């Protein structure tokens, strides 16, 4: 991948490889320091009450990260929502709706009976959360405090889960869950654009629980963190679904020529999982996170189809596609989240839910 975003990520994670790259990183350092200082000042203004914070009348869980880019927030939100729904609670997810179509006011994606709007309007991740958890309330709002008020006052939410909200300090939270990539938790430790961080590492002091995502054997030990640390990893499902949701065993794809594509933060991980499950990937097509399947993207899929038998993609991509748009049958393979050392999370959730019953 030679895109500017991929180059920047490689530079920040692996370091400069030559003199021009070292010079570039040095030139970016002042901008990174300034970006970090702006975030620090902003956080202190909220902490001192100089910027307004909405306090919801129900428990609030925030899920977010320190680094820009995907660290697996949606699977963690999905995991939490499933656990809370399992306790019979009326759970609401509040999202900014990244990738949605210019939303200005709050949009109710689900009232507790599955998606009500198109993913092009609300964004792929809120739509997917609503589809995977039809009993959950899902609200998208650029001003998330507006979405939180709507969920509580109009929809009867008993507990809120804020998606991608570590830096969204305009809503008070009772539990702050911070996600860190297990392989490179802090990258090079610098804020954007000199690094990948949205804030200085000192911002981690706001966290209550920390989840290392994409953990696997051989990952380095995490940095010292001011709270309990959990490990998690994505697990490829055992079934493949067509775009209408019809299921079949993943093994049915063995022996077929597969073109895999994915518009997620780390598509190579998805492709590797497919190979480890025995699929013959004759071509892979990594796309930008939150990819839009416009005429250009669909043409790229036609070009790579070749003599393949089937497309395979993620749930996040599949919600934006229709079978008639594609030159091959398409299967989506769900990812689930496996979480280890959950005692601290169990205790925190028990304390929050005790306030509801």
Automatic annotation (TrEMBL):
Residues in the signal sequence: none
Gene name of the encoded protein: lpxK
Taxonomic source organism: Geoalkalibacter ferrihydriticus
Residues holding ATP: 67-74
Pathway where it operates: Glycolipid biosynthesis; lipid IV(A) biosynthesis; lipid IV(A) from (3R)-3-hydroxytetradecanoyl-[acyl-carrier-protein] and UDP-N-acetyl-alpha-D-glucosamine: step 6/6
Gene Ontology CC terms: plasma membrane
GO biological process per UniProt: lipid A biosynthetic process; lipopolysaccharide core region biosynthetic process
Keywords from the UniProt entry: ATP-binding, Kinase, Lipid A biosynthesis, Lipid biosynthesis, Lipid metabolism, Nucleotide-binding, Transferase
Function: Transfers the gamma-phosphate of ATP to the 4'-position of a tetraacyldisaccharide 1-phosphate intermediate (termed DS-1-P) to form tetraacyldisaccharide 1,4'-bis-phosphate (lipid IVA).
Catalytic activity: a lipid A disaccharide + ATP = a lipid IVA + ADP + H(+)
Family, similarity comment: Belongs to the LpxK family.
Protein name: Tetraacyldisaccharide 4'-kinase
Documented EC number(s): 2.7.1.130
């Amino acid at each position: 991948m030679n895109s500017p975003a991929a180059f920047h990520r490689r530079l920040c994670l692996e370091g400069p490889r030559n003199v021009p790259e070292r010079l570039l990183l040095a030139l970016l350092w002042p901008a990174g320091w300034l970006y970090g200082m702006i975030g620090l000042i902003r956080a202190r203004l909220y902490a001192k009450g100089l910027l307004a914070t909405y306090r919801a009348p129900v428990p609030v869980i925030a899920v977010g990260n320190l680094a820009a880019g995907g660290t697996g927030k949606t699977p963690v939100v999905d995991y939490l929502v499933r656990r809370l729904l399992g306790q019979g609670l009326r759970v609401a997810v509040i999202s900014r709706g990244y990738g949605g179509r210019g939303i200005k006011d709050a949009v109710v994606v689900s009232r507790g009976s599955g998606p009500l709007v198109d993913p092009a309007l609300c964004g792929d991740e809120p739509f997917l959360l609503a589809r995977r958890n039809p009993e959950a309330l899902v609200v998208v709002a650029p001003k998330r405090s507006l979405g939180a008020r709507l969920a509580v006052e109009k929809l009867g939410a008993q507990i809120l889960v804020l998606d991608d909200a570590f830096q969204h300090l305009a809503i008070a939270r009772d539990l702050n869950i911070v996600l860190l990539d297990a392989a490179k938790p802090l990258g090079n430790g610098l804020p954007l654009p000199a690094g990948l961080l949205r804030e200085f590492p000192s911002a981690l002091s706001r966290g209550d629980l920390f989840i290392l995502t994409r953990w696997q054997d051989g990952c380095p030990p995490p940095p010292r963190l001011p709270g309990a640390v959990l490990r998690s990893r994505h697990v490829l499902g055992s079934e493949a679904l067509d775009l209408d949701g019809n299921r079949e065993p993943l093994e049915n794809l063995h022996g077929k020529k597969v073109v895999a594509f994915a518009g997620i933060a780390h598509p190579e991980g998805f492709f590797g999982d497919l190979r480890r499950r025995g699929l013959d990937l004759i071509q892979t097509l990594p796309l930008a996170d939150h990819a839009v399947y416009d005429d250009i993207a669909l043409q790229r899929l036609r070009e790579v189809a070749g003599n393949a038998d089937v497309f395979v993609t993620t749930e996040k991509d599949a919600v934006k596609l229709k079978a008639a748009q594609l030159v091959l049958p398409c299967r989506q393979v769900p990812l689930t989240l496996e979480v280890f050392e959950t005692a601290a999370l169990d205790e925190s959730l028990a304390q929050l839910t005790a306030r509801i019953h």
